[in-house]
Amino acid sequence: MGSEGSEGVVPGTVRPGGRTARVRAAVLRAAGDALVEHGFDRLDLAEVARRADVGKTTVYRRWGTAAGLVSDLLLDMAEQSLPRSDTGSLEEDLRQNARLVLRTLTDPRQGALFKSVIAASLCNAHTADALHRFYATRIGEWAGCVEAAAKRGEIPAGTDAHEVIRAVSAPLYYRFVVSGDPLDEAAADRAAEAAVVAARAGTYVG
């Protein structure tokens, strides 16, 4: 289990600058590869250091635990995620959102990585917190397209933008984690359309 630093900061969640950026990138890439191959339970910091060609001491001092390493990996993924679309149409923006989620979950590496992190979050509080922060960041970024739609009059004022974005991705994650039903563009487009119809009907107001 991960431990917090002396000032209450989870190891690995403070973004480095300058010359340490290259080391961070190499370690996070190695950590992602190890998660895909072996899962969280077998994520070993010494092995990650070897893969990244970085000293073990550096990895243990900076990230401390597997949970700290995964926390920083998710932070990095949030930082590198594509920006939201801005097409001027809520339906098209949400379709773009759904297809972005689809591409992520069906990508051989990214899909396996998310599945591993989701599984780890069920038994590790620090990993769960990091995953929640990751999704809060992404939902917050995409909420802007819903807020813009409300200003244009496409949907009622007072629509909860975050709930609309959650409604788009929820059916796709259900297929990904629970049901095993096909994940394809048809499923993504249906999720987006359903969210738009519900938003226009005032489902997410208040």
From TrEMBL:
Residues 44-63 bind DNA. Residues 21-81 form the HTH tetR-type domain. Keywords: DNA-binding, Transcription, Transcription regulation. SUPFAM superfamilies: Homeodomain-like, Tetracyclin repressor-like, C-terminal domain. The keyword DNA-binding applies. InterPro entries: Homeodomain-like_sf, HTH-type_TetR-like_transc_reg, HTH_TetR, Tet_transcr_reg_TetR-rel_C_sf, TetR_C. This is TetR/AcrR family transcriptional regulator. The keyword Heme does not apply. It comes from Streptomyces gossypii.
